Amino acid sequence: MKEVNAKGMQCPRPLIETKKALGEISVGEDLVVLLDDSIALENVERYLKGLGFSPIIIKKEDGVLEIKVNKTKAVSDISTVVKSESKKEEGTEKEKGAVVVIKSQAMGEGTEELGKLLMQAFINTLPEISPLPERIIFYNGGIFFVIKDSPVLKSLQFLEQRDVEIQVCGTCLDYYAKKAELAVGRVTNMYDILENLNWNKHIINP
Description:
The protein is an alpha/beta fold. The chain has helices at 13-24, 38-50, 78-86, 112-125, 153-161, 170-175, 190-199; strands spanning 2-5, 30-35, 56-59, 65-70, 99-102, 135-138, 165-169, 186-188, 203-204.
């Protein structure tokens, strides 16, 4: 059994260390990852499940979160998993849309008030385009669009219901103390964000 002590590590280090450890152990061996952050736990758990494993989560009395998983098969690099999730087989699925990156509450340069109006109009118009975006990534000030009382929440919920993946930076939610207010999308990490951007050649940064 191999153990990874990821306590105190900042995103996306726990995921990177888990990925590295999986590559170092043999098929049939167990891996235990120790964490003390719920967002890191979600990221590592989602990664392991994406590889086809069945991780077991144990919450210890001292606040430590433990993930135990058995390496039941050989695995490839995490980027292969991301690529397979984002790549559409030609002729079998709808046309692949762009990745939209929302990193602030305002669009363009100029007055802040106008910038906010433009960004809200941009997001509210996304449901009208074809093909729909493949995913929308929110980080830094952009995370305020995915929390309760967001002026574009209904549009984002509509997009999510139509299989548009909405990813939200977990570190950013923690920094602004808004994790409890998340109303749409799933929490992700910088490693995941970078992999998704790396595999998609059509990226929109309004």
